[in-house]
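Weekly structure sync, notes
Attendees: PL (lead), two postdocs, one rotation student
Agenda item 3: pending single-chain targets
PL asked that the sequence for the first pending target be pasted directly into the notes so everyone works from the same version. It is reproduced below exactly as submitted, 51 residues in total.
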Amino acid sequence: MAVNLLELEDLKSAAKEIEEEVSIKSLTVKEKAAVATEVLKSAAARKKYCT
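Predicted structure, written out during the meeting:
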């Protein structure tokens, strides 16, 4: 994943999106990781770092 290519503001935005996930507190660690992965993939795709 191209997270290291994202700008700081993009990472902050992704972190905020992850934190705001309504059900995030009730998820398992594995499920939280999956949510974070999808959010970061979306951020990278918006910047055209991955597809």
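Discussion points:
- The mean pLDDT is 82.
- The chain has two helices and no strands.
Action: rotation student to compare against the earlier draft before next sync.
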